[in-house]
Request: fold
Amino acid sequence: MNINVVFLIFKRPDTTAKVFEVIRRAKPAKLFVVADAPRGDRPDEAEGCAATRAIIDGVDWECEVYRNYAEVNLGCARRVSSGLDWVFDQVEDAVIIEDDCIPDLSFFQFCAELLHRYQDDQRVMTIAGSNFQFGKSVTPYSYYNSQYHDCWGWATWRRAWKHFDFEMKLWEELRDSSFLQDHLGDRQMAKYWRIKFDLAYQSQRDTWFYRWLYSCWVQNGIALVPDLNLISNAGFHPGATNTVKEASYFDLPRVEMKFPMQHPPFMFPNRKADRLNFLNRCHIGLPTRFTGKMKKIAAGIKK
Reply:
């Protein structure tokens, strides 16, 4: 498959091997591997990092392999963002998969076709592989337009990544404005993401994703989300960087995308699907005051 695949790895050879096996079946023309180094205060991680990197030596198809291995630990936010900077210095687009996100094989063709179809459409910033509707179809088409740019198996272009703002330079100006409520159309969702973005801005959460989601929203960028779930996240584990608690949206069943795809003839976001996504993905750990609002959202969507 003539695609560029970015494989983000760290210290889990078990899940890395499962994801690598699907990449091997897809046979991408170029494979970019971005790896962080073990943390200095956790010497036990060195063995896991070495075993994980060794899996990449198993490339046995015609493929250009590029390795970007950190010599010191950079942390999740800096390692992923600097790795993607490195990738997009070399290629125009890429499919990005982490070491705990196991894709259906059709995920790669799904991304390849949409990367080509929307390559010059500045409105579209990402293509997602995950669907959190729990089997509920939300569109008659193969995918829907969304405000949520999910990172569990995704794809993007250099033209979009250039808007990534690690420092979140406009956040102080936007934080106390109506920006989030205007964008999301919901006061409680706006409050939730204000908290999350503040954590990232103040470096209290080692995450590149909140910074990327913020960057996409500042640009009013659209995400393309499959109407079927193409990714299973098998990474919840006490030793994981972020996914340490099991939740209902982990390890969701994968479904094969059918081709040829049916493309939506419009570009506006599916707000009902986005609200259900928020409810299913973000409701765990919400403050009690959000509970009533979330129940109303769920009831409205299910009617």
